Amino acid sequence: MQEQIWILLEQTLTGNDDTEKELAIDLAKAAYKYTQFRVLWNFYSIEEKAEQDKYRTSAHNAYMDCLRIFLRYEQRLGKSVPNITESDRKTLGDIGNYLTYKLAVRQR
After folding, report:
1. pTM for this structure?
2. CA 5 to CA 33: how far, in whole Å?
3. What are the phi and psi torsion angles at 87 (to 5°)?
4. What span, in angstroms and rounded, lies between the C-alpha atoms of 24 and 10?
5. Residue 74 and residue 81: Cα distance in Å, rounded?
6. How many Cβ atoms sit within 10 Å of the Cβ of residue 6?
7. What is the distance between the alpha carbons of residues 53 and 47, in angstroms, rounded to a whole number?
8. Mapping DSSP to helix (H, G, I), strand (E, B) and coil, where does residue 87 land?
9. Tens of pLDDT, residue by residue, the chain (108 residues)
10. How far is residue 87's CA from residue 90's CA, in Å, rounded to a whole number?
11. What is the C-alpha to C-alpha distance for residues 22 and 40, in angstroms, rounded to an integer?
């Protein structure tokens, strides 16, 4: 599923549909912001985690909204998109981390 979403995202970033590209960029930025929280979580103290938790949750929710909007738009364009309705929050978060990883490696 994550690879299928990555392929859609990558194709969109090099496509000609401005709306599609804007949604892809929004998704990529939201995934990155959420991934920052996931990485930094490893280094936070218990107090810092309590302090940052609402921001992490907010970033996760924003990312998931962007993901759903992007996939809905792709589906409207007639593209095959994975069904994420049965996926839990952790799985969806992992997809965001994967997209961030792939974008980082793509820039080499």
Report:
1. 0.93
2. 18
3. -80, 140
4. 8
5. 7
6. 17
7. 10
8. coil
9. 999 999 999 999 988 999 999 999 999 999 999 999 999 999 999 999 999 999 999 999 999 999 999 999 999 999 999 999 999 999 999 999 999 999 999 987
10. 8
11. 27
